[in-house]
Amino acid sequence: MMRGAIKNQRYHLKKKYFNGVPANEIRTTSPVDYMSNAQWRDLIAKWSDPKNMVRGSFHILFLANQF
Q1: CB–CB of 19/25 below 8 Å?
Q2: CB–CB of 26/17 below 8 Å?
Q3: Residue 2, domain member (yes or no)
Q4: The total number of structural domains that make up the chain
Q5: Is 58 inside a domain boundary?
Q6: pLDDT tens digits along 2-54
Q7: Which domain holds residue 34?
Q8: So what's the pLDDT on residue 5?
Q9: Closest alpha carbon to 49 in 41, 39, 61, 37
Q10: Is there a contact between 13 and 47 (Cβ–Cβ < 8 Å)?
């Protein structure tokens, strides 16, 4: 149950602070109190990885075709 809550929390962080934000405007410091700056930078690095970007795009397209 905790794992799902953490994943959901990261989803909302990505949606608010990463998706649709130009690369030069992405925050380098954590926008939330419960996450260190190092943890935030690790998330940004993960989200910026082309492998993860393709996987996320495929998942969105797959879900869009389901309905």
Answers
A1: no
A2: yes
A3: no
A4: 1
A5: yes
A6: 788 888 899 899 999 998 889 899 999 999 999 999 999 999 999 988 887 76
A7: 30-67
A8: 85
A9: 41
A10: no
